[in-house]
Amino acid sequence: MACVRNTQLEALHAGRTPISRTGDGSDVIVQDAEGNRIPWSEVSRIDDDEMRALMREIVDRLYTFHLRIDDPAFRAEIDRWAAMTAKWDAAKPDPVLSAIPGETPERG
Question: What does pTM read for this prediction?
Fold first, then answer.
């Protein structure tokens, strides 16, 4: 929540959403400046520069979060923000990151 919300992602999400009578966008076509008709499911909704900027912002926030999480004042503010997420679905481990082998504790 602290690292992804209220980033450039919000600006990318802003704007009008096309009306789809089927509900899945299969009946929505985008026509570009050259007259190409592109099905909504095939339209890129974010360009490379926007993606690069978004990823940099999120990575910087994650890095800063990890640097500061042991600071009691910072942690208190994060905990206050986290209260807003009480109705969100519970987080779960990412399967891709979880599959990366980690250190195994030595057994004695």
Answer: 0.70
Amino acid occupying residue 50: E
Distance CA(108)–CA(106), nearest Å, equals 6
d(CA 57, CA 48): 14
Nearest C-alpha neighbor of 5 from the set 72, 88, 75, 76:
88
pLDDT tens profile 3-53: 888 888 888 888 888 999 998 888 999 999 999 999 998 998 888 999 999
For residue 44, give every residue at least 6 positions away whose Cβ sits within 8 Å of its Cβ, in sequence order, or none: none
Is residue 54 a contact partner of residue 3, using CB atoms and an 8 Å limit?
Answer: no
